[in-house]
Amino acid sequence: MSQTLISNISQMVTFQGVAKKRGRRPTLQDLGVIENSCIILNGEKIQWVGPKKKLPKLSVQKKIDAKGMVCFPGLIDAHTHLVFGGSREDEFAMRAQGKSYLDIAKSGGGILSTVQSTQSASLKSLIQFGKKRLQYARTLGVTAIEMKSGYGLTVKDELKMLHAIAQLKKTEKTHIVSTFLGAHAFPKNMHQNAYTLLICEKMLPEIGRKKLADFCDVFIDSGFFNLAQTKKILLTAQKNGLHLRIHSDEFKALGGTELAVSFKAKSVDHLIAISKKGVLALKNSDTVATLLPGTSFFLGKPYAPARKLIDAGVVVCFATDFNPGSSTTQNLPFMTTLAMTQMKVTLAEALSGITYNAAKSLGLEQEMGSIEAGKLANLAFFEIPNFKYFPYHYGENFCKLVIWKGKPVVHLA
Ligand SMILES: [Zn+2]
Q: Which CATH number fits domain 3-73+369-411: 3.90.550.10, 2.30.40.10, 3.30.390.10, 3.40.50.2000?
């Protein structure tokens, strides 16, 4: 196996203490920052991490000069809808004139308009859109990303979306987690229970058989899937070998969070309107709360109670929710700024939310999310004076070098 030495790292933020605490209540000390440090990679994995003065003597085949940059574990975006057709700028203008997201959804806009554009897009064009967006995410330091179906809403179109994601998994130099979200909305002209049955009897068995998705997701909320429908879908998904995550409590708490925890879901997402019972269920569980500050920002809505959740001992992560309707950004670093300014979380909590805790949201925390020997060599380097600068100077991209599975995939330094 070939070894690579990365030297001249001004600060390496390892997140080793965060990993030890399995993501609960991370502090500044838990970030495990090592000044003037080096990393030795062995093939796809990290072999050694530490300060330069303790570097073991060895002859390596390859050397990379980090030029005094700050090194983070590769960033992880645990909630996106990255594959879709079309865009919805008209709706954005309508919202600025006072129409609500729910009003627009009821009048046939919202998710259903993206469904139409995605249904009419070819598999090839969906793959092309996906490639471009993934390429951009990589330049920001993202090395792992979750993406969902859910703009197909027919057997054929949901499978088309999952096939597009499967193709991206094969060709792209980013770790991709695939989620089936057939239960994203109800298709026009179909009874809600009939569509739920279609998901359970046709879509999930086929997806399970062909191993076309890692996770199954359900949008449980007012105007979307109810508790009984969600339970049926989660049960069927589990039987078909899929892990679970849900969109819950975005508009109204319907008991989805408690239900997901009882199913041992890896993550519940959104949680703006989470109830006391929901917080209680989460804090006693291993389920991660994936919060999406970009959606609150873009819709001008309240933010999820991150402070309350973290203080209760819930593992909290932050993701972009990148989609064409309610969060049009792929800028994961910006989510840390929003988390700190709008959700009153600390620097350590914000940074853990896009690294270790995001890995845990995807069930990948054994392989990534912190910099330690034995984990995958997924690393992002930023040209900033120190790690605290990362969420402080927002909206600009300082990432200059990204290593994925031991190899540079972005190299601008
Ligand atoms: Zn979403």
A: 2.30.40.10
Q: 391 C-alpha vs ligand 1 centroid, how far in Å?
A: 23
The rounded Å distance from CA 247 to ligand 1 centre is 6
pLDDT for residue 105 is more than 80: no
CATH number of 76-361: 3.20.20.140
| pLDDT classification of 323: cutoffs 50, 70, 90 | very high
- Which part of the chain is CATH 3.20.20.140? 76-361
As a whole number of angstroms, the distance between CA 241 and CA 221 comes to 25
Query: Residue 413 C-alpha to ligand 1 middle, in angstroms?
Result: 34
* Ligand 1 geometric centre to CA of 354 (Å): 16
Distance from Cα 168 to the centre of ligand 1, integer Å = 19
Tell me the average pLDDT of the chain. Answer: 96
Q: Rounded distance, CA 159 to CA 182, Å?
A: 9
Kindly give the distance from the C-alpha atom of residue 301 to the centroid of ligand 1, in angstroms, as a whole number. 15
Question: What is the structure's pLDDT at 409?
Answer: 97
CA 49/CA 219 separation, integer angstroms: 41
Residues with CB under 5 A from ligand 1 (ion): 321
- Is it the case that residue 70 has pLDDT exceeding 90? yes
Could you count the other beta carbons within 10 Å of the beta carbon of residue 24?
16
Rounded CA separation 67/314 (Å): 37
